[in-house]
Amino acid sequence: MLLAATQSLQAQDMLPGFPRLQEAMADCDTLCSYGQRTDTVTVPFITFPATFRELKENEITDSLGILRPFWEKLRLLRLGASADTLRIVHVGDSHIRGHILPRTAGDLMQRTFGALSYTDVGVNGAFCLTFTRPDRIEKIAALHPDLVILSFGTNESHNRRYNPMLHYRQMDDLVRLLRDSLPGVPMLLTTPPGSYESFRMRRRRRTYSINPRTALAVQTIHKYADENGLAVWDMYNILGGTRRACLNWQEAGLMRPDHVHYMPDGYVLQGELLYQALIKAYNDYVR
């Protein structure tokens, strides 16, 4: 599929028309082999903007096979051996609250597998700690997810006193509460895509520099996942890491003027990359 593409942070709620996505999906053969009742799914091809450099393989890290129960349910669904609707719940900050990223991934998953629901639960300016309230845990549990995706780290890393140990404990608080309410449900962590921090210079001119704490937050997410049995989709390092993660998006014109959030086309690309990573991991399980 071809593509031309701490502070409380605000998201955009307006959904774009997805013109490129609709054109690409008009021919279903470009995404998956609908006419064949096979286990595997054709992995969509993504062409990046010319500015994107130093990319890595778009893969989910799951060395312990934490997601295997979900892949098996997905396989049975694709083969028509299960009539149950699979439910993915994507929880996170303003990147998720803006809807475009999760709905792009969810629409593609639904078109590929059929009886699958993909619900986003986002809060502007959210930290992991934001969702440790009982009412929010109950809301997530009431959705009866088969997979929970957790997307945080942007707001944590925008605190200039960022503390990896505190971030680790906050992730642990959230995951433990979710595991108590949703025993046996696998979880996938994602890393923040990268952002800038701003400074006021002389004559009150604002300047921007790459947020150096994003890389620390990403390391903390990996450490927590490794030590507590969670899978990770590391969008930050897949799309350039410390050298290029921010520059790739900025030079392609896919970041908003606040240098934290993304243009609609940027979130569409992120959603399609998440879908591609899910399909690759699913195919690895089936094979």
UniProtKB/TrEMBL annotation:
Q: Which Pfam families match?
A: Lipase_GDSL_2 (PF13472)
State the Gene3D superfamilies in the record: SGNH hydrolase (3.40.50.1110)
Molecular function terms in GO for this entry? Answer: hydrolase activity, acting on ester bonds
Domain called SGNH hydrolase-type esterase: residue spans = 92-267
Instruction: Write down the PANTHER family for this protein, in alphabetical order.
Output: SGNH HYDROLASE-TYPE ESTERASE DOMAIN-CONTAINING PROTEIN (PTHR30383:SF29), THIOESTERASE 1/PROTEASE 1/LYSOPHOSPHOLIPASE L1 (PTHR30383)
Name of the protein in its database record: SGNH hydrolase-type esterase domain-containing protein
Species of the source: Bacteroides fluxus YIT 12057
